[in-house]
From TrEMBL:
InterPro entries: MeTrfase_RsmB-F_NOP2_cat, MeTrfase_RsmB-F_NOP2_dom, RCMT, RCMT_NCL1, RsmB/NOL1/NOP2-like_CS, SAM-dependent_MTases_sf
Compartments where found: Nucleus
Species of provenance: Brassica cretica
Region listing for Disordered, in residue ranges: 1-39, 396-419, 471-556
Bias type Basic and acidic residues, positions: 17-35, 486-496
Name by which UniProt lists this protein: SAM-dependent MTase RsmB/NOP-type domain-containing protein
Keywords: Methyltransferase, Nucleus, RNA-binding, S-adenosyl-L-methionine, Transferase, tRNA processing, tRNA-binding
Binding site for S-adenosyl-L-methionine: C182, A183, A184, P185, G186, S187, K188, D214, D270
Biased composition (Basic residues): 1-16
Taxonomic classification: Eukaryota, Viridiplantae, Streptophyta, Embryophyta, Tracheophyta
Length: 623
C-alpha cells in the first residue's frame, strides 16, 4: 500500500473523529477526561452585521439565528442518468420512507426522509438524523449504508440542498457548451453533466460538453473524483484562475470549416466566497467570521463574473452564485457587473420558476462595514480605508461626494441633482443625515435563500442573460488589472480576513475528503481532445497568482494530484477483468503487443469502464 493512501486513511479517520465530536458535550461523569468543546455558535460581529443589513425582518431574527445554530439536515440527489434511477427512487419511496414512517408512528419520534418539493421528479431528498440516531436505528443504519454505496458508484450524490439550486436555473440543454468556472469539488458539475447526458441514447455521446475549471489543483482532485463517477467523455477539467481563463479555439471538423473561437452557451460562476451560508455545516466559521472576509473577496468575484460574461455567447446565460448572505459579495457584485456591461447584459426575472422553492428578492440597499465602522456611501470612507473599501461595494457604485461637489459648484442642486444624473441609483439625502443609497437596478430579481425558509443552508443566485456583445474594453481580461495578486482593490487584509482562505470554498462532503494520491505521473496536456473537436489554448494564461488570499497556486508541469487514469500492470488482474466482462481477445485485444509500451494496454482497460465502449473502441482501435 502506498504512503499516500495510508496517510489518506489516517487523515480521514482523524477528520471523521473530529467531526463526530463537534456537537458532543463533555460528559458530566468524566470531568477530567479531555473532550472537545462544541464550536461556539456565537459571533457578535456577525449578528451586528446582518441585523444592520436587514437581511431578514426584525420579527424573524430569533428564528433566523436559532436555525443557523442547528446542524444541517443531510441532502442527496439521485443521478437522473443512472440506469437504476427509477429503481432507487422506488426503494427510497417504498422501502425506506415507509419503514421509517411505520417506526415513527410506533415510537412517535423519527422523521422520515423526504423529497425536496422544489427539485424536479423527486430526484433530491433530505433527511434529518443525527449520527447517534443512525447508530441506534437499524433502518437508518441500512439507509446510511445504501446512501454510501450508491454515492460511491455514482447513482446518488450527497450535496447540500441549496447548492443544488443554481444548475436548475441555468436552463442547460444537452447540446450546450457549459463552463463551470469555479467547479471544485464538483457537485454542480455533476448536475450539469447529468443534464448534458439527459437526452442521449445509451451508447451515444451528447453534443454538449462541460469545461470544469478550478484554480486549486488539490480541490480539482476532488472534482475529478466526483465527476468520474459519471463515466463521461464530455468533460474537460482545467486548472486556471477563472478571471484569466484563456480564450480557446475550436478546430474545425473539416478543412473547409474555419477555426472558431470557443464561447459558451452557459456559464456557471459559483465564486469563492466568505461561505457564511454554510455555517450550519461548517460551524468553525462562527469563530472566524468578520466583515472583512466579504470585502476582501468582492473584487475577485467581480472579475470572475466579468470573465464569465466575456466567454459567454450572445444569447447565452450565466449564473452568478455564492454560499454567502453578504450583500457585498452578492448584490454589490451583480450591480457592478450590470454597470460595467451596460445594456449588453440583463438580470433575468426567474420568479415564476421552481415556485416551491422559497426565496427572497435581492436587496436594493445595503451598507459596507470595515474596521473603521459602517459606511452608507463611498463619500464617507476616509482615504486610509479606501484600499479595503471600494466604490463598487456600494449600491450606487459611485463616489457621490465627488460628483455632488461638482454639481454644487455648478448650481445648488446638491445630492438630489446628482441623483437625477446617476443612472443606476437613487439617493435619499437630507442635509446632515447619512446618505442612504438605493440601487435602482432590478436587483430584486436576484434571489437569496436563508436557512429558516426551508431548513437549509443559505445561498444567493442571480441569472444573467447576455443580449449583445459586451462593451469592447470589457471583453478581454486585462492581465495587469485582473490578476488577483496585483489587484489593488483587495489588498488590505485583516488577520481574520486571512481566515477566508479556509472559509471561502464550499465545504467538501465528508465522503469526498480523502482522495489523495501523491505518486502520479500523468502529464497535463496543453491540448485536450473531446470527440473530434480539438481545443487549443489561444494563449497561455499569466502565471497563476493567489486568488482570494493565500490560496495555493496550481501545480505546473507534472501532475501531482489524483490520477484519473489507473494503470493496471498485473496480467492476472487484467485476465480476471476480461473474464468478468466476457471480453474476447479478437474483439478487443488486451495483450500487450511486443512493439507497444505497456501503458497502451492498461489505458485500454480504463476505457473499457466507459459506457460508450463501442464507439471509443472503434476510434481507439483505428488509432
Ligand atoms: C464555492 S466553491 C465552488 C463549489 C462548486 N461549484 C461545487 O458546486 O462543488 C469555490 C471554488 O472556487 C475556487 N476558486 C477560488 N478562486 C478561484 C479563481 N480565481 N479561479 C477559479 N476558481 C477559484 C476554489 O478553489 C473553490 O473550489
Amino acid at each position: 500500500m502506498g504512503r499516500g493512501r495510508q496517510r489518506g486513511r489516517s487523515q480521514r479517520k482523524h477528520f471523521k473523529e473530529s467531526r463526530e465530536n463537534v456537537w458532543k458535550r463533555p460528559k458530566s461523569d468524566a470531568p477530567d477526561k479531555p473532550t472537545w468543546e462544541p464550536f461556539l455558535t456565537d459571533n457578535p460581529n456577525f449578528e451586528e452585521y446582518y441585523k444592520e443589513q436587514g437581511i431578514v425582518k426584525a420579527e424573524e431574527w430569533d428564528l433566523f439565528m436559532e436555525i443557523l445554530r442547528k446542524p444541517l439536515p443531510a441532502a442527496f440527489r439521485v443521478n437522473s442518468n443512472s440506469q437504476f434511477c427509477d429503481e432507487i427512487i422506488s426503494i427510497l419511496e417504498n422501502d425506506f420512507v415507509k419503514s421509517l414512517q411505520a417506526e415513527a408512528i410506533e415510537g412517535g419520534e423519527l422523521e422520515a426522509i423526504k423529497p425536496l418539493p422544489w427539485y424536479p421528479k423527486n430526484l433530491a431528498w433530505h433527511s434529518n438524523f443525527s449520527r447517534k440516531e443512525i447508530r441506534k436505528n437499524k433502518i437508518l443504519e441500512r439507509f446510511h449504508e445504501f446512501l454510501k454505496l450508491e454515492n460511491e458508484v455514482g447513482n446518488m450524490t450527497r450535496q447540500e440542498a441549496v447548492s443544488m439550486v443554481p444548475p436548475l436555473f441555468l436552463d442547460v440543454h444537452p447540446d450546450h457548451f457549459v463552463l463551470d468556472m469555479c467547479a471544485a469539488p464538483g457537485s454542480k458539475t455533476f448536475q450539469l453533466l447529468e443534464i448534458i447526458h439527459g437526452a442521449s441514447e445509451p451508447g451515444t455521446l451528447p453534443n454538449g460538453m462541460v469545461v470544469a475549471n478550478d484554480v486549486d489543483f488539490q480541490r480539482s482532485n476532488l472534482l475529478i473524483h466526483q465527476t468520474k463517477r459519471m463515466c463521461t467523455a464530455n468533460l474537460i477539467v482545467t486548472n486556471h484562475e477563472g478571471q484569466q481563463f484563456p480564450g480557446c479555439r475550436l478546430k474545425g471538423l473539416s478543412e473547409d470549416m474555419p477555426i472558431n473561437q470557443l464561447s459558451f452557451d452557459r456559464v456557471l460562476c459559483d465564486v469563492p466566497c466568505s461561505g457564511d451560508g454554510t455555517l450550519r455545516k461548517a460551524p468553525d466559521i462562527w469563530r472566524k467570521w468578520n466583515s472583512g472576509m466579504g470585502n476582501g473577496l468582492h473584487s475577485l468575484q467581480v472579475i470572475l463574473a466579468m470573465r464569465g460574461l466575456s466567454l459567454l455567447k450572445v444569447g447565452g446565460k450565466m449564473i452568478y452564485s455564492t454560499c454567502s448572505m453578504n450583500p457585498v459579495e452578492d448584490e454589490a457584485v451583480v450591480a457592478e457587473i450590470l454597470r460595467r456591461c451596460g445594456d449588453s447584459v440583463e438580470l433575468v426575472d426567474v420568479s415564476d420558476k421552481l415556485p416551491e422553492l422559497i426565496r427572497r428578492p435581492g436587496l436594493k440597499t445595503w451598507k459596507v462595514r470595515d474596521k473603521g465602522g459602517w459606511f452608507t456611501s463611498y463619500k464617507d470612507v476616509p482615504q486610509n480605508r479606501r484600499g479595503g473599501v471600494i466604490v463598487s461595494m456600494f449600491p450606487s457604485g459611485k463616489n457621490l461626494k465627488d460628483s455632488t461637489e461638482t454639481t454644487q459648484e455648478n448650481e445648488n442642486g446638491g445630492v438630489q441633482d446628482e441623483c437625477k444624473e446617476t443612472e443606476n441609483s437613487v439617493v435619499d439625502a437630507i442635509p446632515d443625515e447619512p446618505v442612504v443609497e438605493v440601487s435602482d437596478l432590478p436587483l430584486e430579481r436576484c434571489m437569496r435563500i436563508v436557512p429558516h425558509d426551508q431548513n437549509t443552508g443559505a445561498f444567493f443566485i442571480a441569472v444573467l442573460h447576455k443580449v449583445s456583445p459586451l462593451p469592447e474594453f470589457q471583453e478581454k481580461p486585462n492581465p495587469r488589472k485582473h490578476s488577483s495578486k496585483k489587484n489593488a482593490d483587495s489588498t488590505e487584509k485583516s488577520p481574520a480576513e486571512e481566515a477566508v482562505v479556509s472559509a471561502n470554498t464550499e465545504p467538501v462532503e465528508e465522503e469526498d475528503a480523502n482522495n489523495e494520491k501523491d505518486d502520479d505521473s500523468l502529464e497535463p496536456e496543453k491540448q485536450t481532445t473531446q470527440g473530434e473537436t480539438t481545443i487549443t489554448e489561444e494563449k497561455e494564461a499569466n502565471p497563476p497568482s493567489q486568488a482570494g488570499g493565500k490560496r495555493k497556486v496550481p501545480m505546473q508541469g507534472r501532475w501531482k494530484g489524483f490520477d484519473p487514469v489507473v494503470f493496471l500492470k498485473e496480467e492476472t488482474l487484467i485476465d480476471s477483468i476480461k473474464e468478468f466482462y466476457g471480453i474476447k481477445d479478437e474483439s478487443f485485444p488486451l495483450k500487450t503487443p511486443k512493439d507497444v509500451q505497456f501503458p497502451f494496454t492498461t489505458t485500454t482497460m480504463i476505457i473499457f469502464h466507459h459506457p460508450f465502449t463501442s464507439s471509443l473502441q472503434e476510434s481507439f482501435q483505428s488509432s
